[in-house]
Amino acid sequence: MANELRTPLTQSRGSSFLKACFNGTNAFLGIGLLTVPYALSSGGWLSLFLFFLIAAMTFYTGLLLKRCLDVDPSIRSYLDIAERAFGTRGRIIVSVIMNSELYLVAIGLLILEGDNLHNLFPKFMIKIGTIFTVDGRQSFVIITALVILPSMLLTDLSILSYVSATGVFSCLIILG
User: Could you give the maximum distance between any two Cα atoms of the chain, in Å?
Assistant: First the structure.
């Protein structure tokens, strides 16, 4: 199983700096721009202190990652760092944690999108014949998953950057 977790770097299909900036900007605008003010208004001044604490911890983590990369240039991923520190078992544990996080975040965002669309269109439901009916929330989760699925199958980051650019411009238009 450990050999399956090691994927050699073959042909690089990366993206340009500008396209990477669109991907990063889309991630920031998509979740951070609207959630941070809400979190600050809900949490008060203490939450501002916690934001700075998290920012400092993130900065320190970046320094530690840089130090790991400087020690061994063959390290290319978190899995490599975990294997170097804890052996094959550490690599497997980090792989399970990383993949679980990706799965759970995707599920959480689908549920969030289903709830938001259901609040906008509360009477929406899908009926197939007279037997099969899907409630509004579940139908919106299914529709959202089907709409997003093609972008999940993209393997070339340069193509994904166009999807991200569309998201960035949509946020800018909506927010004014």
Answer: 65
Q: How far apart are CA 140 and CA 7, in angstroms?
A: 36
Q: Residue 11: helix, strand or coil by DSSP? A: coil
- pLDDT one-digit tens code per residue, 62-91: 999 999 889 888 888 899 999 999 999 999
Check residue 13 and give its pLDDT. 54
The CB-based long-range contact list for 138-141 (8 Å cut-off, 24+ gap) reads: 138/114, 140/113, 140/114, 141/110, 141/111, 141/113, 141/114
Residue spans of alpha helices (H) in the chain = 2-5, 17-27, 33-43, 45-71, 78-120, 136-152, 157-175
HSE of 71, CA atoms in CB hemisphere, 13 A: 10
Domain coordinates in residue numbering, the chain: 102-175
Q: Are the beta carbons of 161 and 19 closer than 8 angstroms?
A: yes
Q: What is the pLDDT of residues 137-173, one digit of tens each?
A: 889 999 999 988 888 888 877 787 787 778 778 777 8
Q: How far apart are CA 69 and CA 84, in angstroms?
A: 11
